[in-house]
Amino acid sequence: MWDALRDVGAVHRRLLPGRVLNVSLDGDVRTLTMPDGHLVRELIVTVDDEERRLVYAVIEGARPPLRHHHASFQVLPDSDGHSRLRWITDLLPDSLAPLIEARTAHGIKEMKEVLELSATT
Hints:
alpha+beta
């Protein structure tokens, strides 16, 4: 799981194929191209291999527009020998939290399916 998350230029292949069409990197800025052509720019803040933690901030293109969006993923060992993903998102305005929470839950489901499928192939 960590290998796929830390591969910040391969979201469209390794985590969210279908939801993200393409990814380009320019230094620490990642641009996601969505299937409808919409672009989302993110600042990659941290890729920490020791803690297995990725931190990013959406800097342009959030839909709906957000004043602030900062998130982190951390891969944690689980007691059964598998991994657990912790995804924390901070955003403003607070009124959009339920929408973003629903999208996050859907994204987790999609990523889980892709990661489980890639683990069996």
